[in-house]
TrEMBL record:
GO terms for molecular function: electron transfer activity; protein-disulfide reductase activity. Disulfide bonds join 33-36. It is a multi-pass membrane protein. The keyword Transmembrane helix applies. This is Disulfide bond formation protein B. PANTHER family: DISULFIDE BOND FORMATION PROTEIN B. Belongs to the DsbB family. The chain crosses the membrane at residues 37-59, 66-87, 137-157. Required for disulfide bond formation in some periplasmic proteins. Acts by oxidizing the DsbA protein. It comes from Paralysiella testudinis. The gene is dsbB. GO terms for cellular component: plasma membrane. It is found in: Cell inner membrane; Cell membrane. One of its GO terms (biological process) is protein folding. Keywords: Cell inner membrane, Cell membrane, Chaperone, Disulfide bond, Electron transport, Membrane, Oxidoreductase, Redox-active center, Transmembrane, Transmembrane helix, Transport.
Length: 162
């Protein structure tokens, strides 16, 4: 598989994950916390950056390397947030730090707020463990980001001489 198809698969996976995130919030009624919203934005950024990397000259080694490095930034940040939330949820309830004010409160005076408000809406508690198929949501996020990073670099390695 060439690197362009690998990036295309990342775009599709990020789009499917984003749709799942919105479905969980707006259809199933799960209320995302500020850390969940950061992970959602990281998933969307992963897909957007991978889409933009499709414009690079991927036939050249430097183009694939630059695309892999650039496309790894958002998943690395999202993985860090997911791991932090997994740790936070493992603490006893009385020891869990607050995850802060909702993003809608923090950004309500920002330009174009009405355009992106549905993406950042949520007031959930970061310490509450929400499960999908019996697995906590931050673990799903960590698996997504890890899979994307592993896929990007595995495909880079396989195509390094092409």
């Amino acid at each position: 598989m060439n690197y362009r198809k690998a990036l295309g698969l990342v775009v599709l996976l990020a789009a499917a994950t984003s749709v799942g995130s919105f479905y969980a919030q707006y259809v199933q009624g799960l209320n995302p916390c500020p850390l969940c919203i950061i992970q959602r934005v990281a998933v969307m950024a992963t897909g957007l950056v991978a889409l933009l990397c499709l414009l690079w000259p991927l036939a050249k080694q430097w183009g694939r390397t630059a695309a892999a490095l650039l496309a790894s930034v958002a998943p690395l940040g999202g993985l860090g947030v997911a791991l932090y939330q997994i740790w936070l949820q493992s603490l006893p309830e009385m020891e869990q730090p607050s995850c802060g004010a909702p993003w809608t409160f923090r950004l309500r005076e920002a330009p174009l707020f009405d355009w992106y408000e549905p993406v950042i809406r949520g007031t959930g508690n970061c310490g509450v463990v929400e499960r999908v198929f019996g697995v906590p949501l931050p673990i799903w996020s960590a698996l997504f980001f890890s899979a994307v990073l592993l896929w990007l670099w595995l495909m880079w390695w396989r195509n390094r001489r092409a």
